Amino acid sequence: MLDYQATPDWAHASDAADTLRAFRGEFLIPPHEGRDSVYFCGNSLGLQPRAVREAVNAELDYWGELGVEGHFKGRLPWMDYHEFVRDDLATLVGARPSEVVAMNTLGVNLHLMMVSFYRPTVERPAILIEAGAFPTDRYAVESQIRFHGFDPATALIELEADEANGLISTAAIERVLAEHGARIALVMLPGVQYRNGQAFDLKAIAELGHRHGCMVGFDLAHAVGNLPLQLHDSGADFAIWCSYKYLNSGPGAVGGTFVHERHGSSTLPRFAGWWGHDKSTRFQMGPQFVPTPGADGWQLSNPPILALAPLRVSLDIFRRAGMARLREKSVQLTGYLDHLVRTELAGMLEVVTPAEASRRGAQLSIRVVGGRAQGRALFEYLMLQGIIGDWREPDVIRISPAPLYNRFADCLAFCRAVQAWHRTR
Ligand SMILES: *Cc1c(COP(=O)(O)O)cnc(C)c1O
């Protein structure tokens, strides 16, 4: 751990010594009253890489100049465009290239994966999620349970927290599986929980789930681009994520899906579309669907090129920065923020997120001592100061220093702003 100090000298020296500091210059930092805002919302909408505009414009130019020929001509022909992000995406999530595909959005991919991997039977109808799951995840699993003719009252099992602040230990997962495992068709848990910032041990969960005969899928919305992932080695059956949070690929960006190699040529049922058809014979336009082996075989449509261009830019940044280096900085940066809250802001704020670096990513979920009204007041004060976090009901402020563009000085600015607010109370 660094020898953290709550001084501008220390923060600036640490920023100057940061080998990743140049990456900040590759992003557009939203201004606040003529200066850069302090943007801690990369867990909700990551910032725009400067190179995105040119990348999107290039595709607009090809469309203008080539029309339909853009599918085959240009620097990156549209026909194969999703393949141009594949290797970087695979590296980022620790998968084989054939195990990942950029397509659709998170909610759509979650449903497509459940079509294949949630196959309930009378004996084994249930899905396990965490209590307090993100709404779309809950709605999606509930609607799938109903779609198959089962009742969420008995077939949706919510894993209750066994630690303070809604945190869930691996032991609690073990216990729920020991009790209900034989009835659970699918274990569907997050990589990082969106509200409290807890990171889960994917490999341990996949092993536990498989031991009880369950399929295991992960929602990595808050984990991708945040934590180093080893999806292949985790053994998970599938995973899904969005790309507009830590991946900085823009509002509504194209999401991603991982399907473990062992299912790549499976005969599991799936909802099919022409882009999932074997590439070599796709344009014979035959009536018989023959899936492309691997994750590609779950594609439905020809991909949205204008939306994929920013993802390509983003993954290029992650490749150059390297997830291992980003994580190293992230541990220090979030560690600094945590240190400031626990020392300088003790009695004002409390951290909900686990204290151990191994159990969290970049995000700290923070509660204001004094309750919800105080929390809202601080949140609004921070926004007025250009310190951008977000609010999650009922009482949590989420602050996420993103190692690609946040600085130690940003964490100190947050600390000083909270102190200034507190003096006015
Ligand atoms: C952000 C997020 C989503 C968003 O889903 P979209 O389909 O991209 O709108 C879903 N689940 C979790 C856990 C999230 O954090």
Report on this structure.
- With 425 residues, the protein is of the alpha/beta class.
- It has two domains: 8-49 and 322-423, Aspartate Aminotransferase, domain 1, CATH 3.90.1150; 56-319, Type I PLP-dependent aspartate aminotransferase-like (Major domain) (Aspartate Aminotransferase, domain 2), CATH 3.40.640.
- Helices cover 36% and strands 14% of the residues.
- It is built from 13 helices and 17 strands.
- Strands 6-12-11-10-9-7-8 form a seven-stranded mixed β-sheet, sandwiched between helices. A four-stranded antiparallel β-sheet has the order 13-14-17-16.
- α8 (202-211) links the parallel β9 and β10 (215-219).
- It is globular, with a radius of gyration of 22 Å.
- The two termini are 34 Å apart.
- The model has no long low-confidence stretch (mean pLDDT 96).
- Bound molecules: pyridoxal-5'-phosphate.
- Pyridoxal-5'-phosphate binds next to α4 and α5.
